[in-house]
Structures are given as C-alpha cells and as structure tokens.
Amino acid sequence: MIVALANQKGGVAKTTSTICLGGLLLESSSCLVVDLDPQANLTIGLGVEVQSGQLTTYDVITEQAEVLEAVIPTKSGLSLLPSDISLAKGETELLTKVGNFLILKERLEPAKAQFQHILIDCPPSLGLLTVNALSAADAILIPVQCQFFALKGLASLLETIQSIQRRINPSLRILGILPTMAEMNTIMTQDVLASLQKRFQDIPVFDPVPKSVKFAESNLAGEPIHHYASEKKLVAPYKAIATFITGELRRGKKTRSVKRGE
Ligand SMILES: Nc1ncnc2c1ncn2[C@@H]1O[C@H](COP(=O)(O)OP(=O)(O)O)[C@@H](O)[C@H]1O
Ligand SMILES: [Mg+2]
C-alpha cells in the first residue's frame, strides 16, 4: 500500500502527518517513509543529517542507486528514504527523461516486497515530483490546515488527481482530507470544516488533528506523536487513519473518483 501525502500548500502538516501515521502503521506492519521534498523536512524531522556519500531520493530517481541501498533506519523505528537539496536538481534532470512521471513508481518497485506500507511525503508544489508520487501511489491523503485560504488550491489539486487517474494511474484513490491544526473553539476552524464538507461532498473528511505545540516538539525530537505525547486526542485522528489504511484499503475498496468542488 503506497500512500502519498500531498497538498501544494506548504505548512499544512504533510511531513508531520507522514511521521505520525508512519509511526502508528509500524505498530502492526512494516513502513517505509519517502522524503520527496528537496527541503528534506521529513529527513530532518526524523533526526537524520544526510552526510556526504549517503544515497538519497535523488540517487534513486536518477537511477544511480537502488531504493533499498539508500533506505536507512531511524530512531523512530521508521525506515527512511532520505532526501536533501540535490532532489531539486533531480526534478530538473527528470524533465528530459521518457515517461518521466512513472520513474518513482518504477524505482520504488523493489521496496514493495520489503515494506507493507510506503508513505510519500510530497513537496509543496504540483510539479513533476508530486505527479510522480501520485502516479506511484495507491491512495492520496490530503492534509488541510484549518486556516484562512485553506481551501484555496484544493480545486487544482483535485484536477491534477483527476488527470492522473484518467491518464496514468486509474487505481489512485482519495483516502480523504485530513484537517490539521484545528482549534475547535474558533469560528475559523468551524468554518473550514463546514466548507470542506459542503464543497467536497464525495470525499471523506477525517476527524481533525488538534493544534498543539506537541507536534512541533515531537518533530524536534524526531519521533511520531504517539511516542512523544500521551494525550489521546492528539493521537486518535492519526490512529483512525492508520486503522483505515491497514483495514479497509488492504481489502481493496472500489476506486473513488473525484468530483470537483465548485
Ligand atoms: N497539529 C498541529 N498543531 C500545531 N502545529 C503543527 C501541527 N501539525 C504540524 N504542526 C507544525 O506546523 C509546521 C508545518 O508542518 P509540516 O508538517 O512541516 O507541514 P508541510 O510538510 O505541509 O509543509 C511544523 O512546524 C509542524 O511542527
Ligand atoms: Mg513538508
């Protein structure tokens, strides 16, 4: 099961959600997390400093290394395909390759035999790297920050998903939208949640992840939230998605198509 965490907006908790979900999936299965962002926040957030000579996502997508040669263990228990700024160069190098949107899918193939779940942390853009992630993925999870302009850009993300479903990867499903950094007692959060339900009626909206400084602290500690904080309300939304991924998706639910929000 390959899940891409994508939203071209930055700062919506794609990386944090990758770490939290990955950590919970590890409780019942094996999980590889892939850093597909040249900013390498996932790599840094798992406490890894890429040293010279360390193979990264760049080497894998430019076919200079096999994925399993580049994967490293982290103290969280998650296996990581690390990244660094060279991935930005990698994206440019892919531009001239034939079938360049399918390279990640092809390069991840050997990891599928080794790991039950692969989570791909996407960069904040709808460029070639994100298209590669969506072409390789079985499902996409869309973190959305409960903030002003949260829904801005969602329509173009959904259009991209539809194009990929139509042209490249018909079995790509939308797992759902994950509202993050929710402050349930504010009008803004209530407003965002109501708008999501109204505008994207055929896409599941998961229970929101509350806003808490514990998430930034857990990132600094290089640990998923359930290792770091005992508050059930912080862990429960991620737990529900982990259960959903290991259960419902593994049984292979029918493909969900996207209806564009107006
Ligand atoms: N639920 C949350 N509450 C408060 N801060 C959060 C929460 N989730 C993530 N953050 C923080 O928000 C910032 C952006 O999160 P990040 O996962 O890096 O987003 P993205 O990968 O989408 O750019 C980080 O500093 C992170 O620690
Ligand atoms: Mg990120």
UniProtKB/TrEMBL annotation:
Keywords: Plasmid. It comes from the Bacteria. The keyword Nucleotide-binding does not apply. InterPro entries: AAA_dom, DNA_Partitioning_ATPase, P-loop_NTPase. The keyword Endoplasmic reticulum does not apply. Residues 2-174 form the AAA domain. Belongs to the ParA family. This is ATPase involved in chromosome partitioning.
